[in-house]
Amino acid sequence: MKRLLQKQVVLIFISFATFLPAVSYSQSPYVPETDTNVLKKLENWQDLKFGLLMHWGPYSEWGIVESWSICPEEYPWCKRVMGSDPDNYNTYLKEYENLKLTFNPVKFNPDKWAEAAKEAGMKYVIFTTKHHDGFCMFDTKYTDYKVTDKACPFSKNPKANITKEIFKSFRNKGFWVGAYFSKPDWHSPYYWSPEFPPKDRNVNYDPEKNPALWKKFVDYTHNQVLELVGGEYGKVDILWFDGGWVQKKSKEYQKRYYAEQVDKNPGGYVYTREVNQDIKMDELVSKVREKQPGIIVVDRAVYGKNQNYLTPENKVPPKALPYPWESCIISGGGWSYTPGAKYKSGHDAIQMLVDIVAKGGNLLLNIGPSPTGEWDKGAYDLLKEYAAWMKVNSEAIYGTRALAPFKEGNICMTGKKDGSAYYFYYMAKKGENVIPPEITINSFKPGKGAKVTLLGTGKELNWEKSGKKGFKVHIPDEIRNNPPAKYVWVLKLTP
Ligand code: GLC
């Protein structure tokens, strides 16, 4: 009984330590969901940990940044370098749009992608059904700027409805599927009206002065999203809306936005042309959830309840965040296909996954398919690194939750959410191939009967108390010299 109690006390302590500090949501960027179906799904989504993002469209033919070169803003990613006369905007735009006439990814084989992603341990996929340029990678009936239009050579291919094929292949392999959907649409005459030249990424007219035109755009957007969730594409788990500047903006919002920009970029250029672009997201989300109850909606960078999780972009937050989140990160090159892309090393990529998981997040790793419908060898090689590591260590990834203090020196930590196991990840330095003889964790106190193993060896290891609330594990030489995996070695503690 005494032992049991002791165990319980330890468990209470540990599970208390597992939970992140309560936050006051009035100060948090996150507004929690109340729909219980969504909450349940969000909880399960947090168990998946590792997903695949793909940016693909006719822009891939030029090997340029997705969409942005047709946006008249002066950023490096908007620079026009292709076509016959990149200095002439109208010529450029025409040629960019004409990429539809040559888009023909005859090697498109989503089963192969799904297989490689599955082996790597990925559990969900998010695909660009429509990026900001407005080109639809699905068979929408609301525009002919789409892959299935007869003027696009790929329309004759049996796999022409690319979104549908990707969803089908990945779903068949047990993946959750998600649709990336850009709210801004730089092809739609209801967003960039031909009456005016486009000025920047925003709608090129004032929606408040032209409510009928704006309503056409709202309807267009809602109709397309409802096509994607309406049944033809099967069960969709996540709707990932990009283009956060398309949102309802009050005067108060504009003031806050301005202050934030000044804060982020003191003395620098502040982007101020903020137009109210009320896309009626609440209405859209309720229509979507009538079709697909519980679907996760991520209205990126838009404060409010339609952003079920937050999406730090191309970065890992410095510490654990007290709400659901996912870092979307480029694996090599840019978001879209980049000729000659250099991919992350196995060391960096695997340690990044562990770092994110230890902070309670998910990793959404991006790969950009080529114009012929292939992935670079570099992408496959990287996924093989994940596959080898996950084969040994995946139990320390799925279904875990952040465990304070998340990291101690080069050791990350998590626990299974039911408290049945705790994991301590030794992040090896580059070139470090031998496990140290002792590994000490100072911030976790195991109960008396706790068992410690190193994943991939199955052997119980000796451990002893260390300091006031720590423990030290002894690693025998035969394990030290033959580590079961590369880059990160995982101690498992069973209380
Ligand atoms: C950035 C890019 C956009 C891309 C997104 C993915 O916002 O500008 O093109 O789709 O990242 O997270």
CATH topology of the largest domain: TIM Barrel
Q: What is the CATH homologous superfamily assignment of the largest domain?
A: Glycosidases
Strand tally: 16
Give the assembly state of these chains: single chain
Radius of gyration: 25 Å
Count of structural domains: 2
User: Could you tell me the strand content as a percent range?
Assistant: 15-25%
- What structural category do the secondary elements indicate? alpha/beta
Total helix count? 11
| Shape annotation | globular
Mean pLDDT: 92
Structure, described:
There is one protein chain. The chain is of the alpha/beta class and 495 residues long. It has 2 domains: 26-394, Alpha-Beta Barrel (TIM Barrel), CATH 3.20.20; 400-494, Golgi alpha-mannosidase II (Immunoglobulin-like). 28% of the residues lie in helices and 17% in strands. The strands form 3 sheets. It has a 7-stranded parallel sheet, sandwiched between helices. β2 (124-130), α5 and β3 (176-182) form a beta-alpha-beta unit. α6 packs parallel to α8. It starts with a helix and ends with a strand. Bound molecules: alpha-D-glucopyranose. Alpha-D-glucopyranose binds next to loops.
